Amino acid sequence: MQKLPPLILATRNAHKTEEIRHLLGHCFEVMDVTSFPDLPEIEETGTTFLENARLKALGISSRIDGWVLADDSGLEVDALDGEPGVYSSSYGGEEGNHTLNNQRLLKEMAGKENRSARFRCTLVLAKSGEEKGVFRGTVDGNIADNASGTGGFGYDPLFIPAGHDSSLADLGAEIKSTLSHRANAIRTFTEAVESGKII
Ligand code: IMP
User: Fold this and answer.
1) Fewer CB within a 10 Å sphere, N or C end of the chain?
2) Dihedral, CA of residue 140, residue 144, residue 149 and residue 154, to nearest 10
């Protein structure tokens, strides 16, 4: 592969950065917007993962030089008609409070027989305020009856990926990096880079 430029992630979520750096670190220098303290917070006012990823990718890349990759992701639960979806990070009532989010999810799922769910990730690549690509990934699974495990972040203690008996938080970073929605989206991104279609 040709020598690649640095990639700036449009996130302040250290867990997302760590996961994407682990997935891409062999071919890109991966930074995030914490290296640019003057950048404004981009409001996620969209109603889809794509709209929010676009807002972040275009909002950041129009203010700094270089390639910007934005991740918008969340959990869709079938018995809750797709909730919490794009509102995953504030489901418990307080933005980014994973404990409250998991508590609310367990409460909403009490007594529900259908536990099927999936994580979705949409990535938007942008440069100079222009969109350069969209990449998506999902992982199917089930919502556990109780939280378990200390790895990962967010809903990982409650999400049991299809084909496994333990939560993503129990399975740990190495296994998560082979099957997660983010890993699958990053795979389509790297395939596009390797085929010379982008960057
Ligand atoms: P975003 O930062 O607006 O994309 O919100 C993402 C939210 O979805 C996070 O705050 C988590 O609640 C949830 N989420 C996304 N990806 C993951 C994951 O890999 N594990 C667990 N929860 C996730």
Assistant:
1) N
2) 60
**Domain boundary assignment for the chain:** 7-194
Beta strand residue intervals within the chain, DSSP E: 7-9, 30-32, 67-77, 116-127, 130-143, 159-161
Query: What does the block give as tokens for 178?
Result: 């082979």
Which among 88, 106, 168, 171 is the best mutation to test ligand 1's pocket, defined by most ligand atoms within 8 Å of the CB? 88
Tokens of 32: 């995030």
Q: Which fold has domain 7-194?
A: Maf protein (3.90.950)
Nearest CA to ligand 1 atom 2: 72
Ligand 1 center to 138 CA (angstroms): 12
pLDDT digits (tens, 9 = 90+) for 64-80: 999 999 999 999 999 99
